[in-house]
Structures are given as structure tokens and as C-alpha cells.
Design a protein that fits this description.
heterotrimer; A mainly alpha; B alpha/beta; C alpha+beta; A: mainly alpha; two-stranded antiparallel sheet; 1% strand; B: alpha/beta; Rossmann fold; Alpha-Beta Plaits; 2 domains; five-stranded antiparallel beta sheet; 15 strands; 33% helix
């Protein structure tokens, strides 16, 4: 069933359009930055953006910071919202179920396909932005000699290429985990409604609410439990020493959301009447 | 093959299926007939474990549904309320995906199985066009092919000839007849009398969620005890059989008479010319119209 | 499902019960963790005070959060200072000895680090991409992130409050440690501080949480506390400042901030006495401290342009004060009171003191210097 879901994912032009859009955003930003050379003021604009002007090797991290807060969750919500509701709309859900595909298995396969999509999209963004970064900003401030692309961490310590690779790996893993809660919310809503758009909008509504509450001091009491609270914690991979606190908490919260919402999706879907 | 007891499904205050005792036997060509909205589709969905009953029991292929529906579904091919396919993929790719999704059926002979199923429904020459570009009839055939992928023991088909032209309908009927001859039980649900009439051996009639009739088709069409006579001289017949003529439509008369042969002899003896003579049989349409009340999609003023 | 039970509704109910049970278990974990009883080691008030005062030698590393709720506008060139008291600051600290430590002020996507090594301080600002070596003593400097870690703030307030009243507080769990508490109630009527609550590790005296409550307030308006703390000596590599590399700004200076720069301009000449208190002997040049204990306040003479902008800002957010000559504006936040006086030059006065006291200071500064 997983193979079937993956085949469906990768034979769908939509997958590549979304990934292409995700890759395009950092590219556009890079082109503007490279032509104007106007860095965002420190502390404002996307993370790492001012640093990439001096070293393009850090651009993948900046690209992650660009797509992470809005673009990536939106695409995950759209795909996850479509996961069950979309099958119901095309009428294929009932044919899958009488094939028979167990309902739990179907949910699990859908989730795994979503994880694979996130991985695919992130890796695509990382590769394109790495190439973009090196091509447009160069790997060293005073180019000329091809020196190893050492980058500076947020703490001012030089990161070796191997260290950078490890940190990027951690970043990818963390972002995949962060997207799990979005996927789980949209997947649950997708089992509730037959409208893929409705499920995606519902998940986005939850995320936007969470984002607003994160910035609201009055909501400080619930802040640690909001799904988006620790979304940017992967930036802590680029401190020296790595600040694990938020990363651990973020991963924990995401797993809790995943377990709960997947549980709800499962409880709802297993005995739901499929009338579409 | 299929037995249901007191099967009931309510959606809120609406009772879609109401106390149905369905009985489909091995080898049957069972026709489930009823107007739109009479609960046929909900009944079929419950048999397949897609919709869960409010009350009652279902047994399919000897196993309780929905509890052990996973064990029986591999032996069932079904077409429920129109075909479903991924519109951006070709028909062949769709069948491969559906084949891979289900249990059984090894990867190696997947291509063969898919080709065979396509061949059976007359789509052997289908190209790489996506299903999006298919006509309704082609989609219907594709749905049928998907139902046939695993050589099922039981076929549950809901409106299978929807969108097919008369030749297509005939092809599907021939295919079903052939499969039935090979031992496949077929449950066909339709609102088209002619379709059931032409194919089925047993009929169940649904009306407003209730199964109002379930019988052998032959039994339903027994003679009515009347004889239909066509003659160029209707007045003479009326004069001869005064009082027994129950209806007259131009040159065709309906006469209450137990024995058509004896009546023929009487008419001939009286020198009356007869162009046609035969026992009157109830038509399936008449049976259904007598049993059903109103079409569900008709909205009367209060 | 609705009002009608289907043949599977029992299963569905069971599933939902399982899901709800999982939610309940997961949701109650943090609550249960908070309910763990605290059994702080019995330690006398005097002993605790001594231990806190001596805790400067205690090596530790941790993650602390300081949050101020003071309604103060960002003052020109002092944004990093006002941010300390108006918002939440994330701090990472590594402390080996009084002359070997590091404090990071962690922002969403930036970081300002301060390294203390035996021979110099190093400041790293990621946003500015700037490494600064600060050589020599800094007689006058602005408050910074490293000053509001619980140990730094706790020991400093305790030092200031030598003459005040101390009462014990019930123990409390801070960053997983059972901490013993004490309360400082200032004796002076001039300060806005109602009390300072301090919790420290009973064994080592390391302050773990400090809460400052203003007079008339029920909740603390400034809190700094460890969320994670380990009583161990940090790794030497962590305490080593980064080496300057190509592409990174590097400067060597003997003043770390604008106050030091102003001080070196030698605007100088602050009054010997203000509001009845003599100027502290330690203060030099453009900045001076007056008063005792928590009622201490600081006066800075600001140069022309900066003084003008600072005054304008305070005038916009605060209240005007009538003074004999020139003009003055005061901003009271409940805890911190800030005053700007424009007379022959601009003075910025700040302290945890009552507005009435600073009004007197305003009058003296504006009248006396004429």
C-alpha cells in the first residue's frame, strides 16, 4: 500500500509543481539579494539572510527559514487535506476500501507518503538553494580561490563542512518532524469532511491561530503546547554548542500532536460511513 | 451468498434502508430493482462494509459483515455508484495501482491480470490517454475491469450500464452471462426494468428503503388468467363472448379465459379470424409499478 | 453516528475512549511533573544569605529566561537595555569562575554572546557580524544580558540590600532543583521595590530564581529564572571566544557600549549631592550613582544630539515635570523610574526609586546647574 501511495504521489504533476514553487521562492530572494546586495537589517528579515551575502554555502539554511513558516506548511496542509477527502471526491476511496485496503493501513500509508513528500521537497529546496547560493554569492567573501566553504555559526564559531552537513541533516529531520503535526491535523480533518479544500483550510486555520497565539503575551500559559511554537527551533542547530532544549521540546510536542490527531483520525475513519 | 436480517440504516431522521431481509443464493443472477433513492446503493454499500448498519445482520460468503469483511472482500468484485479512477493516470496505470493496493495477486503477473481484465471489458487497445479524457462509457468499462481483476466469486454491480450505448449494454450483459455461467454470482442493482428483465433470474424490488418483493422472475411473470386476442373483427368477438371481454384497444381485446387453446377453438368455430392470440402475462413493469408508491425524486406539493 | 447507534458504534466508542485516554495521559504529564513535592534542605536564613553571597565561585551552566513587564519605550541607542526590562530574554550561561564565563543572549535567529576571560572580555554580535575585544576595566557600562542571569542579579541585589529586612520563603522547585527561598523587604521608603524574592540552591547558594515585585503590585514585574541548570564546570572549549576570521568584523576597544563612549567624552561634572544623597565615590566622568541600597539611582549626562532624542522620547511617553529652568520629563513604570532633564545639558536619571524622589532630583539638576 505504501508503494501505491508513493506511486500516486510521484506520478502526480501537482507534487512537482508544489516542489517547484517551494524551490522558486529562495531562488527569487537570492536573485534580488545578489543583484542589489542590500542585506536585511540584523535581527530582521529571514534568518541567515544577512550572512549569506558573505558566504553562499549557508544559503540552504536561509532558504529553509524562508519556506518553513508559511510555504511548506501550506503545501503539506493542501496535500494532507486531499489525502482522504480527495480520494472520496474522485470516488477512488470506496474502491480502495473494497479492494480491500484496511482503513488503518490506508491512513498509515497516507502519512508515510506525506513524510516522503516533505523529505523530497526539503531536499529539493536544499539542493537548489545550495547551488543558487554558491553560484550567486560564492563560497568565500573575497572569491578567487576555491576555499572550503566554512561558515560561521550564530555563535561566531566556524563550522566545518562536515559539521555543516551534520547540522543540515539535523535540520531536515527536525523540519520533517515539525510538518508531522500539520499533516496529522489535515489528515484528521480530511477524514471528517469530503472536501479536500475544507480540510486544508481547517488545518491552516489551526496553524494561523497557533502562530498568532505564539506572539501574544497574554497566551503565554499555553505557548509551550502550541504546534508552531518550536517550528524555528532548528535554527538552534547553528549555535555553538547546539541548543538542544527547544529542539527536544519541539520534537516532543510534534510527536504528541501526531499521536493524538492520528488517533483521532483513526477513531473517526475506521467506523465512518463512506457515502461518496 | 448474501443474507441480511432486518438490515436497517438511518441517516439522522431519514431511514435509507428499513428492515431488509435480502437473500442472494449461489449462482444467482439477482436483480435489485427500485426507483432512485429507494435505498439500493446504501444496501450495496452496507454489504461491502463501506457503510455501517444501524441495526441488523449481514452475512456475505458465509462471514459476518462488517466484522470480517476483510476476509470476504478479496472474493468480491464491485462497482458502486459509478466508476472511480485517478483522472491524471491512464486506465492501465489505474488498474495496476488498484491491483497493487489489494492483497494477493503477485507482482509478476500483474501485467497479465490487468491486460486480461481490460480485454474482457473491451478496452484491450486502450492507449496512454489519462482517464480524464475517457468517455463515460469507457470509464464504466474500466470500473468493470477493476471489479474483475481478481476473478471474484461474487460480483456486486450498481448501475453497471450507466453511460453505455445499446451495443455496450449488450456486451456487458453477455459478459455477465458468461461469468455467471462459469459460476460467478451476480448481484445487479438498477432502476432500469429492461436491464433486470433481460438478465436476471431472481428479483428483489426496493421501495422507500424496504424490500417489498423478492422472488424468481419466472414466478412473477405467470399468466394472469386472461387471454389477449388480436382480430380484424373485434365486434364479432365482443358479441360472441359478451361479458368476458375486459378490455378493448382498437383491434386488441383482453378476455378473461382460463384456457387460450379452448378460446382459440371457440373463435375459430365461430368463424372469427384471429391474427394473434396468447395468454396475458404480467410484465415486470406492471409488478414494480403495483408495488412501488412513488419515485423518490418526485417532490409533491404538501 | 449521531443519535442512532450503528452496529459498530461500540467499536467507535472504544476507539475514542482510547484516544481520549492517550490525550488525558499526555496532557496530565506536565501537570503531574509540576506537582512533585519539594523537600528543600532545611537551611537557616543566615546560612542561606552567606551561601548566596559566596556563590560567585560556584561553577554552573544553564538556560535561563528573564522577563520584564515594564511599560518602557525603546530609548535611542539604549534598545538593548530597555529590551531587558520590557520583554523576555533567553540566556545561556556557562560559568567556571568569576573571570571565566560566557553568557549568550539568544534571539530567534541571532545571538549576542559575552565571553569573560582572565585577560579580556569578548563580545560577539551575530547580527552585526562583529567580534569585539574589550580590554581593560569598564568603570561605567550599561546593563546587559549577563547582568540579569539569576546568579548575577541575585547576588547583586543581595549585596545592595545588606541593610534591609530578610524573611524566609517556602521552598520551590526551579529547573528541577529543590530551591530554598528568601525575601528581601527594602527598608527605604524611596525605592519602588516592594520586595525581592530569591530562591537558591540550598547547598551551594547559587541563585536560581529572582522575582522583583513593585509596590502596589501583586505580581512580580521582573522575573529571571533558570529553566535548566547543571552544577558543573563547563567545558573549556565553550568558554573560548571565537577566533576572528575573514569576513567577520573585529575591533579592539576599551569601552563596551555607548555609556563608556560618553564617559570618555568627559562631559563630566555631576553634582556632589542629589536629593540628599552624596555621589558614590566609584563613579567617574559622565555617570554617577547616588543613594543607598535598592533606592540607588544613576545619573548620566548625555551629549547634545543623543540627549535631545532621549528627552523627546521620554517626553512623548512620560509626563512633563515643571522645573525652575529648562524642561524635564519623567516616566514611571511602577518599578523603574526614568527621568530626563534638559537644562544646560541633558541628564538621564534612572533607578528603582519613587517618582517623587526623581522630581526632587529634576528640580535640583535643572535649578542647581544653572
Amino acid at each position: 500500500m505504501i508503494a501505491v501511495e508513493l506511486a500516486k504521489l510521484f506520478r502526480r504533476p501537482r507534487t512537482y509543481v508544489i516542489t517547484g514553487l517551494l524551490c522558486a521562492l529562495p531562488l527569487i530572494v537570492a536573485i534580488f539579494l545578489a543583484t542589489t546586495r542590500v542585506p536585511p537589517p540584523p535581527g530582521q528579515g529571514g534568518a541567515f539572510l544577512s550572512a549569506v551575502l558573505s558566504n553562499g554555502a549557508l544559503y540552504p539554511a536561509a532558504a529553509m527559514a524562508l519556506v518553513m513558516p508559511v510555504f511548506l506548511p501550506v503545501s503539506v496542509a493542501v496535500l494532507a487535506g486531499d489525502a482522504v477527502a480527495g480520494e472520496a471526491t474522485t470516488g477512488t476511496l470506496r474502491y480502495l476500501l473494497i479492494r480491500p485496503v484496511g482503513r488503518t493501513r490506508l491512513l498509515a500509508a497516507k502519512l508515510i507518503a506525506l513524510v516522503v513528500f516533505v523529505l523530497f521537497a526539503i531536499v529539493a529546496v536544499l539542493l537548489t538553494s545550495y547551488v543558487t547560493g554558491l553560484a550567486l554569492f560564492g563560497s568565500q567573501p573575497s572569491a578567487g580561490v576555491a576555499l572550503p566553504a566554512d561558515v560561521t555559526s550564530l555563535s561566531g564559531v566556524t563550522i566545518t563542512p562536515a559539521g555543516l552537513a551534520l547540522r543540515m541533516l539535523g535540520t531536515v529531520a527536525y523540519i520533517v518532524i515539525s510538518m508531522l503535526s500539520v499533516a496529522a491535523i489535515a489528515l484528521f480533518l480530511s477524514t471528517v469532511t469530503d472536501s479536500a479544500l475544507g480540510a486544508a483550510m481547517g488545518a491552516l486555520a489551526v496553524l494561523v491561530t497557533s502562530q498568532v497565539l505564539v506572539t501574544l503575551d497574554a497566551a503565554a500559559a499555553v505557548r509551550p503546547y502550541l504546534p508552531t511554537r518550536y517550528w524555528l527551533a532548528w535554527i538552534d542547530f547553528f549555535r555553538d554548542p547546539v541548543l538542544w532544549r527547544d529542539i527536544e521540546r519541539g520534537a516532543g510536542i510534534q510527536l504528541v500532536y501526531l499521536v493524538v490527531l492520528l488517533g483521532m483520525a483513526w477513531a473517526n475513519f475506521l467506523t465512518r460511513d463512506v457515502v461518496n | 451468498m448474501i443474507v441480511t436480517r432486518d438490515l436497517t440504516k438511518r441517516y439522522g431522521r431519514l431511514t435509507a434502508v428499513d428492515g431488509v431481509h435480502l437473500d442472494v443464493r449461489e449462482g444467482d443472477r439477482y436483480g435489485l430493482l427500485g426507483p432512485n433513492g429507494s435505498g439500493k446503493t446504501t444496501l450495496v454499500r452496507m454489504l461491502l462494509g463501506l457503510v455501517f448498519a444501524t441495526r441488523g445482520e449481514i452475512e456475505v460468503l458465509g462471514r459476518p459483515v462488517p466484522r470480517r469483511v476483510g476476509e470476504v472482500l478479496p472474493d468480491i468484485g464491485a462497482l458502486v455508484e459509478g466508476p472511480g479512477a485517478y483522472p491524471h493516470l491512464s486506465g492501465r496505470a489505474n488498474l495496476r495501482l488498484f491491483d497493487a493496493a489489494g492483497p494477493g495477486g503477485s507482482r509478476r503477473d500483474r501485467r497479465r491480470r490487468v491486460d486480461e481484465a481490460l480485454e474482457r471489458v473491451g478496452l484491450a487497445g486502450v492507449d496512454r490517454r489519462p482517464v480524464r479524457a475517457y468517455s463515460l462509457g469507457m470509464r464504466q468499462r474500466l470500473g468493470l475491469a477493476s471489479a474483475l481483476l481478481r476473478r471474484p466469486r461474487l460480483l456486486v454491480l450498481d448501475e453497471p450500464t450507466n453511460g453505455l450505448d445499446p451495443r455496450g449494454i449488450r456486451e456487458v450483459r453477455d459478459l455477465l452471462t458468461e461469468l455467471n455461467a462459469q459460476g460467478t454470482t451476480v448481484l445487479l442493482s438498477s432502476h432500469l426494468l429492461a436491464e433486470i428483465d433481460a438478465f436476471c433470474t431472481r428479483v428483489g424490488v426496493m421501495d422507500r428503503g424496504r424490500l417489498v418483493l423478492q422472488d424468481e422472475l419466472a414466478a412473477l411473470r405467470e399468466p394472469t388468467g386472461r387471454v389477449v386476442v388480436a382480430t380484424p373483427e373485434p365486434e364479432r368477438v365482443v358479441a360472441l363472448l359478451d361479458g368476458r371481454v375486459e378490455g378493448r384497444d382498437g383491434t386488441t381485446l383482453t378476455i378473461r379465459h382460463a384456457d387460450p387453446a379452448a378460446l382459440n377453438a371457440d373463435l375459430v368455430a365461430a368463424g372469427i379470424r384471429v391474427t394473434e392470440l396468447g395468454p396475458e402475462r404480467r410484465s415486470l413493469e406492471q409488478v414494480v409499478l403495483d408495488l412501488t408508491t412513488t419515485s423518490a425524486d418526485r417532490v409533491e406539493a404538501a | 453516528m449521531g443519535a442512532h447507534r450503528t452496529v459498530v458504534s461500540a467499536q467507535a466508542r472504544r476507539r475514542w475512549v482510547v484516544v481520549l485516554a492517550v490525550v488525558a495521559v499526555l496532557g496530565s504529564l506536565p501537570v503531574l511533573a509540576g506537582l512533585r513535592p519539594v523537600r528543600a534542605a532545611e537551611v537557616g536564613l543566615a546560612t542561606l544569605r552567606e551561601r548566596i553571597a559566596a556563590s560567585g565561585r560556584q561553577a554552573h551552566e544553564g538556560y535561563a529566561l528573564s522577563s520584564g513587564l515594564l511599560p518602557l519605550p525603546a530609548l535611542p541607542d539604549l534598545e538593548q537595555v530597555t529590551a531587558l526590562v520590557t520583554g523576555t530574554t533567553e540566556l545561556r550561561t556557562w560559568y567556571a569562575a568569576p573571570d571565566r564565563w560566557r553568557v549568550d543572549v539568544v534571539d530567534e535567529a541571532a545571538e549576542r554572546d559575552l565571553y569573560q576571560t582572565p585577560d579580556a572580555q569578548y563580545a560577539w554580535d551575530y547580527g552585526q557580524n562583529q567580534l569585539t575585544r574589550i580590554a581593560g576595566a569598564q568603570p561605567v557600562r550599561l546593563p546587559r544580558g549577563a547582568d540579569v542571569t539569576p546568579p548575577a542579579l541575585g547576588t547583586r541585589l543581595l549585596g545592595l540590600a545588606a541593610a534591609d529586612r530578610f524573611t524566609p520563603l517556602p521552598g520551590k522547585r526551579v529547573a528541577g532543583l529543590a530551591a530554598a527561598g528568601l525575601r528581601i523587604v527594602p527598608a527605604s521608603a524611596d525605592t519602588t521595590v516592594a520586595h525581592v524574592d530569591l530562591w537558591a540552591d540550598p547547598g551551594t547558594g547559587l541563585p536560581l530564581q529572582v522575582e522583583v515585585t513593585a509596590r502596589g503590585g501583586s505580581r512580580p514585574v521582573f522575573v529571571t529564572r533558570f529553566l535548566e541548570v547543571h552544577l558543573r564546570t563547563p567545558d573549556a572549549s565553550v568558554l573560548t571566544p571565537p577566533a576572528p576570521v575573514a569576513g567577520m568584523g573585529f575591533t579592539v576597544t576599551d569601552t563596551s557600549d555607548i555609556l563608556g563612549a560618553i564617559d570618555r567624552l568627559g562631559v563630566g561634572g555631576l553634582p556632589e549631592r542629589l536629593a540628599g544623597s552624596p555621589r558614590e565615590a566609584t563613579a567617574v566622568g559622565a555617570a554617577g550613582a547616588y543613594g543607598a541600597g535598592l533606592a540607588r539611582f544613576v545619573v548620566v549626562a548625555l551629549p547634545g544630539r543623543l540627549g535631545y532624542r532621549t528627552y523627546g522620547r521620554l517626553r512623548a511617553f512620560g509626563q512633563a515635570v515643571t522645573v525652575p529652568q529648562g524642561e524635564a520629563a519623567i516616566l514611571s513604570t511602577g518599578l523603574l523610574t526614568v527621568l530626563a532633564v534638559r537644562a544646560d545639558r541633558t541628564y538621564l536619571v534612572a533607578g528603582l526609586v519613587q517618582p517623587a524622589l526623581l522630581r526632587r532630583v529634576a528640580a535640583e539638576l535643572a535649578g542647581g546647574a544653572a
